[in-house]
Write a structure and sequence with these properties.
single chain; 195 residues; alpha+beta; Aminopeptidase; eight-stranded mixed β-sheet; 8 strands; binds coenzyme A
Amino acid sequence: MSLLRESTTMTPSFGGPPFVLIRTARLLLEPITEGHADEMFRVLADPSLYHYMPSEIPTSLVWLRERYRVLSRGLSPDASQLWLNWIVSRMEDRRAIGYVQATVPPSLDHALMGWTVGRATQGHGYARESVRAICSHLMRNGIAEVRATIDVRNAPSISVAESVGFVREATAMSEDVLDGIRGTDHHYVLRSLPS
Ligand SMILES: CC(C)(COP(=O)(O)OP(=O)(O)OC[C@H]1O[C@@H](n2cnc3c(N)ncnc32)[C@H](O)[C@@H]1OP(=O)(O)O)[C@@H](O)C(=O)NCCC(=O)NCCS
């Protein structure tokens, strides 16, 4: 099944357009565009962001622009999955500070989420605020379950997940090898958002 045709009209099972601008009290969550690459390159060039996640540090601005151009479709290259990436900006200065991503498989029954906030702006509750808003958007549109996989050593990310209402359901050896070491991950699930 291709989600391409459905998402350009309106994915019936999703409930509404999946890839929309979302506002919170302090933040703007914008569907990713190639134009976000210049600002995000500086945020993502910090090696300290990659201690506990397998994402690649961007090798060049050209690489990141191309990556964001692909992601701006909101779909995997074969159009079978929703690849929803939002750039998080602060309302007060319109500065891009991070991203939240959600991958939704063809079954549309769950989403797998990830999040990153640049080091200079960590510790202000921005991750919690943006993750909660995206979970709310996904669940309002019929996604029954949001999942997140978090390295057991990643205390800030665990704190974000648990404060949003994710519940730890399992702990298992990671599929990823970071710095030559296969770590251990907690598997978190969110089935309803606490009010
Ligand atoms: C995880 C991450 C997104 C958090 O961003 P953030 O905007 O700083 O998060 P918030 O401010 O919303 O919340 C951070 C929480 O972590 C807590 N925290 C921070 N450092 C901590 C530590 N070393 N030990 C325990 N808790 C810690 C903070 O106290 C806060 O919780 P609180 O509000 O209950 O006190 C950010 O650290 C990051 O991008 N890390 C690198 C990328 C990454 O690992 N992403 C997640 C992959 S699963």
